[in-house]
Design goal:
By secondary structure, the protein is α+β, with helices and mostly antiparallel strands. Helices cover about 30% and strands about 25% of the residues.
Length: about 425
């Protein structure tokens, strides 16, 4: 948050992405009060008009104390909303989470206009008591319990037990993790003011950037076919044709399996490294599909059941050398990945090739804050569409999957899931059977 004064001497408050409030021409006392509020917590009377204006605009953090000890703080992320009165029981919103932030607990929800920073264990106990509609009754003398429940309701963190979170379709359709992901990965004025968003390059001060090239695997390598792109420009079907002809194929013809030459052509056309360069101390890469910041964190792992000219197993695609390196030979781990793909595709037939798409998260998360994982999933989508169109142009069967077994991927590769994990799956094979 920052302030600015216009030519008429009127003061304005600003927050990220355009949120602002005009305060007008303030007196010397009001300007001194504003400076004091900006420098740290102060104790003032609530009757001051400037405080009323700041509170109504959601600009003030308010700490509730008892005998000089801080109990909890209301931390606005947007202007306050006025909830409907509640006659029945309250429960904690199912979208609310309590987590540690530094040495305190923070209670927040993507639907609430304020979070609550908990300073005292007694307040945490009161919050926990709202987990269900049956509560320990409050005595009239329990002023803290009544105040906490009131403030949680006002903030939007406590809701009616049988209210719209249970009955309104627009709320019931969201899982808490999905709504949180949507809320935090979008450019919103509700994002807490102390959180960066977008390309903050936060990691620059603490960690070295990850190299663009994946660390090699020790298994046997397979050099792949490099297609003649100039010839393909003349012979390929048109963009309109491949878009209109694209279909998802879940069953493939094992009598005529895809061959290693076709697999090599598809990988070359979709995912090879065309160029690399250094920018802002980070390696950037040019590949056929787009990637935010040219970071290209995605890696491709063809899991082979049957490919003419290639042994079954799990491979890693090296997009610089355009070759496959064996990660794991055929066996239970590889079969588990193929079986999970068949289950996700709602078919009994395992694919001839399952291309598992993984992400080396540090490539993106070193630069981007809050929205990095959302960016990864966007990259998965554009890569899958690129593979769909190339497969269609080549006359191959293909199908992007809605989910996959990330535990099986980690077991097969031995990778740390926090460093690199599977984020997408794509089935590939010869033309559909029948």
């Amino acid at each position: 948050m920052w302030s600015a004064e216009d030519q008429q001497g009127r003061l304005h408050l600003f927050q990220r992405w355009g949120r602002c409030q005009a305060l007008g021409a303030l007196s010397a006392d009001d300007r001194a009060l504003l400076r004091s509020l900006a420098e740290g917590p102060i104790t003032v009377g609530p009757e001051l008009e400037l405080l009323k204006t700041l509170r109504a605009g959601g600009w003030l953090e308010i700490t509730i104390s008892r005998h000089g000890d801080a109990l909890y703080t209301l931390c606005p992320v947007s202007p306050p909303a006025v909830p409907e009165p509640v006659a029945g029981d309250l429960v904690l919103s199912r979208f609310a989470i309590m987590r540690r932030e530094e040495a305190e607990l923070l209670l927040e929800s993507p639907l609430a206009w304020a979070g609550v920073r908990v300073h005292d264990p007694e307040v945490a106990r009161i919050v926990a008591g709202l987990a269900g509609p049956v509560h320990e009754p409050l005595t009239p003398d329990d002023r803290l319990g009544h105040r906490v429940r009131h403030d949680l309701r006002v903030a939007g963190l406590a809701v009616p037990a049988c209210g719209e979170e249970e009955t309104r379709r627009e709320l019931r359709q969201w899982g808490p993790h999905e709504l949180w992901f949507h809320e935090r990965s979008r450019m919103r004025d509700r994002l807490p003011a102390d959180r960066g968003w977008g390309r903050t390059s936060w990691g620059k001060a603490a960690f070295a950037p990850l190299p663009a090239r994946h660390e090699g695997y020790g298994g046997a390598g397979v050099r792949l076919h490099r297609p003649d792109l100039a010839a393909l420009r003349l012979t390929d079907p048109s963009l309109t044709a491949v878009i209109e002809d694209r279909r998802s194929a879940r069953v493939f013809d094992d009598e005529r399996p895809i061959d290693v030459r076709q697999l090599g052509e598809l990988l070359y056309r979709c995912a090879r490294v065309r160029a690399g360069y250094l920018l802002d101390d980070q390696e950037r890469v040019d590949r056929p599909y787009p990637s935010g910041g040219a970071l290209h964190e995605l890696e491709l792992y063809p899991v082979v059941r049957t490919v003419a000219g290639l042994e079954a197993g799990m491979y890693h695609y090296d997009p610089r050398a355009h070759r496959l390196n064996l990660v794991r030979s055929a066996g239970p781990e590889v079969n588990r990945l193929l079986a999970a793909a068949a289950w996700a595709a709602a078919t009994r037939e395992r694919p001839q090739v399952l291309i598992v798409i993984s992400a080396r998260f540090g490539r993106v998360m070193w630069s981007y804050s809050e929205m990095a994982y959302a960016l990864v999933l966007k990259h998965v989508g554009v890569l899958q569409q690129t593979m769909y169109l190339v497969a269609t142009a080549m006359g191959l069967g293909a199908c992007a999957l809605g989910g996959g077994d990330s535990s099986a991927f980690s077991a097969a590769t031995g990778l740390d899931e926090l460093a690199e994990a599977s984020v997408g799956e794509f089935m590939l094979g010869s033309g559909a059977a029948g």
